[in-house]
Amino acid sequence: MEQSVTLRNGASVRVRAIRPDDAPRLMALCRGLSPRTLYQRFFSFRRLLPEEAHAFANVDYGQRMAVVAEVDDGHEPELVGVARYGPSEEGTADIGLVVADAWQGLGLGTLLLEEILHAGEQRGNHQFSADVLTDNRRALRLLARHTAITRRTVAGGVTSLVFSRRADAVLEATKHGGS
Ligand SMILES: CC(C)(COP(=O)(O)OP(=O)(O)OC[C@H]1O[C@@H](n2cnc3c(N)ncnc32)[C@H](O)[C@@H]1OP(=O)(O)O)[C@@H](O)C(=O)NCCC(=O)NCCS
Questions:
Q1: pLDDT score of 178
Q2: Angle, nearest 10°, between helix axes 23-32 and 50-57?
């Protein structure tokens, strides 16, 4: 799984499965997030610890999976977005998604969501879930538009969704090449 994608601003990003050596890049991505984005993703203002980044970067590519969006300006490759899932107590594949602030609004969140849902389905995961802050309209709209939501519960300012991939999801980003 690897493809190059041209975003709405003309920038090219590589979308690929996460690798163990991404741990320091995950920490750098997390360090660069605005407090708001950080809180919307992790429900906390705490940055990733090295052991957490290590765990996030080491997936089994089945029950736990992550895809990253990487830019490479010729110096050091940098991660600008990550989508992941891991097993939940309810037996769903629980999704987490974040795009670096400067890269939001370009279709990357939509693309990463579609890629992680596709990766999950290919690995036999068809029921997904996500916890989203109830005031996070952007993420809720993204999920409502690109998935088929089967359950929605709201408690303590958090909206918990169960959903499956929508076969007719429309990708707005333009894909070039890849496999
Ligand atoms: C949610 C998130 C992943 C979306 O990423 P993104 O790259 O901005 O997403 P897209 O560019 O594909 O846009 C997604 C939607 O947001 C809308 N949007 C994008 N930028 C926006 C902005 N500045 N203001 C309002 N809406 C905006 C888009 O129009 C699109 O809406 P649509 O699906 O109705 O067309 C990103 O905002 C993020 O990382 N947020 C913090 C973490 C988070 O909320 N994670 C979800 C819970 S795990």
A1: 42
A2: 120
pTM of the model: 0.92
Domain range annotation of the chain = 2-176
Mean pLDDT of 76-100: 97
Distance 19 CA to ligand 1 centre (A): 25
Cβ proximity of 84 and 95 under 8 Å: yes
* 18 pLDDT more than 50: yes
Decide: 69 and 81 in contact? Cβ < 8 Å. yes
Q: Which one-letter DSSP state was computed for residue 170?
A: P
Tokens 């909206």, residue located? 159
Is residue 139 lining ligand 1, measured as CB closer than 6 Å? Answer: yes
Nearest CA, atom 16, ligand 1: 138
CB of 98 sitting under 6 A from ligand 1 = yes
For the domain 2-176, what is the CATH code?
Answer: 3.40.630.30
Q: Which are the contacts of 115, defined by CB distance < 8 A and separation ≥ 6?
A: 1, 15, 67, 83
